[in-house]
DNA sequence: TTTTGAAAGTGGTCTGACCACTAATCTTTC
DNA sequence: GAAAGATTAGTGGTCAGACCACTTTCAAAA
């Protein structure tokens, strides 16, 4: 009979230990040697468990310092999922379309919430007039302000896989359109904001920026 | 300067090897000792990489036999998502919201395309009247008909992870609402379809089906 | 007081040694 | 010759010990 693998026990024991001792993100976890002694197993077994958790982004290890519980924002499960989802369904068109789905949903969410009244918009408008304002920053700001971290994470991944359509900095000709979007959001006019946003992004995608390069 | 960790290299080299040599699910992977020699690293390093992949369910190891590429259906990513992240309620909220984003986007896409004229809708209406029509089938049909396979796949994963709100079969009281949705789609009236859809799903989620159980 | 450098502790890696288990092969027995 | 049993090679599972590279600490030297 195959015995259950020890390193899997270690994984769950670690999880219990973290909960019981109320270890919080950023806190240090006992060293590998300590854990090996405490749990009465070899250090290599401990390491197999820790490396598994590290691949998931649940812990961070820093040579010479120790092992630390990772910030939940650094969890890599979604990334790992992405590498497998996008294996077979990596039609570029689907990726772009799905990005757009998340972007418009973000605008919709912002318009429906108090975020539309934040002072962020004014400062965004000012940064827009300055030099070196990257297109991606504009969209990312919207995704962040939507308040849905999962959606933000998915969007970020799609951007990496689908080739970033928001590469490069905002050209003077684009500014009026972007300002219209900001204005519509402040007015909580989702419909207009989304229409203008789609007008902007479709030029970037279809025209390969030819119009504004 | 901290060097990149070798076991991570191994992980990606393994992925490349699997693709290049066209190893398929169920096939055997070279033994740990072979891999160690071929990649010029210690066996323990190989094991750290393999154990990580095993925790994800990407490979299976059988003592005395060897290591095998796992069937994609055995991938444990979703399960891991649940065990490690589900505690945070905000995350669960994000999952539900992101599901909704994809669902409404699907309805929007259908209404804007020729799919709204397909004979599917009539047959769907008929199945709705029959017995044993599972709620999930209804939504999945919409996701499929949207034509965005990536969006469908993301939706499917979110459903597993976030607890399926569309569990159980359609109750008689729900049918009018669902028929309204179908009708609105056929009329390409996305706004009405989405409003009614949200009305339906919000009852399922918030009310925990109490109203219709 | 500041600087330096030695020491202790940590993760990263390798080696070699067992153990438990499987499957193929060989040997014995009928 | 065929079936049953024993042997053996190969595999993953685990452990112990040894280095290395790196960080932090703290006491000694300037």
Describe the structure.
The structure is a homodimer of 213-residue chains. Chain A is mainly alpha-helical. Chain A folds into two domains: 6-74, Winged helix-like DNA-binding domain superfamily/Winged helix DNA-binding domain (Arc Repressor Mutant, subunit A), CATH 1.10.10; 77-206, Four Helix Bundle (Hemerythrin (Met), subunit A) (Up-down Bundle), CATH 1.20.120. Chain A has helices spanning 6-20, 32-38, 43-55, 77-88, 92-111, 120-129, 135-145, 149-161, 175-186, 190-206; strands at 28-29, 59-62, 66-69. A three-stranded antiparallel β-sheet of chain A has the order 1-3-2. In chain A, helix 1 (6-20) packs across helix 3. The longest helix of chain A is centred in the middle third of the chain and has 20 residues, at 92-111. Chain A starts with 5 loop residues before the first helix and ends in a 7-residue tail after the last helix. The mean pLDDT of chain A is 86. Chain B binds a DNA duplex (30 and 30 nucleotides) through residues 1-3, 5-7, 31-33, 36, 41-45, 47-48, 50, 61-67.
Number of spatially distinct domains of chain A: 2
Radius of gyration of chain A: 23 Å
Number of DSSP E strands of chain A: 3
- The number of helical segments of chain A is 10
What is the N-to-C order of secondary-structure elements of chain A (H for helix, E for strand)? HEHHEEHHHHHHH
Distance between the termini of chain A: 67 Å
Largest sheet of chain A: 3 strands, antiparallel
CATH topology of the largest domain in chain A: Four Helix Bundle (Hemerythrin (Met), subunit A)
| Spatial order of strands in the largest sheet of chain A | 1-3-2
What is the subunit arrangement here?
homodimer
Query: Helical amount among residues of chain A, as a percent range?
Result: 55-70%
The rough form of chain A would be described as elongated
What's the CATH class label of the largest domain in chain A? Mainly Alpha
Identify low-pLDDT runs of chain A: none
What fraction strand of chain A? under 5%
Provide the CATH architecture of the largest domain in chain A: Up-down Bundle
Residue-averaged pLDDT of chain A, rounded? 86
Please report the two chains with the greatest interface, counting residues with C-beta closer than 8 angstroms to the partner's C-beta.
A-B, 41 and 42 residues
Helix vs. strand class of chain A = mainly alpha
């Amino acid at each position: 009979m195959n015995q259950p693998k020890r390193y899997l026990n270690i994984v769950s024991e670690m999880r219990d230990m973290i909960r019981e001792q109320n270890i919080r993100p950023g806190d240090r976890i006992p060293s590998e040697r300590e854990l090996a002694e405490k749990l009465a197993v070899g250090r290599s077994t401990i390491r197999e468990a820790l490396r598994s958790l590290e691949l998931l982004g649940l812990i961070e290890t820093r040579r010479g310092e120790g092992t630390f519980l990772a910030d939940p924002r650094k969890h890599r499960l979604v990334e790992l999922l992405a590498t497998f989802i996008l294996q077979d369904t990596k039609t570029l068109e689907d990726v772009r379309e799905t990005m757009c789905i998340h972007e418009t949903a973000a605008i919709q969410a912002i318009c429906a919430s108090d975020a539309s009244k934040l002072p962020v918009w004014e400062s965004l408008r000012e940064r827009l007039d300055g030099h070196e304002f990257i297109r991606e920053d504009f969209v990312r700001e919207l995704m962040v302000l939507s308040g849905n971290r999962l959606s933000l994470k998915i969007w970020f991944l799609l951007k990496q896989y689908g080739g970033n359509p928001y590469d490069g900095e905002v050209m003077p000709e684009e500014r009026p359109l972007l300002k219209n979007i900001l204005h519509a959001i402040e007015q909580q006019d989702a419909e207009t904001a989304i229409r203008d946003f789609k007008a902007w992004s479709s030029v970037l995608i279809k025209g390969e920026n030819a119009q504004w390069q």
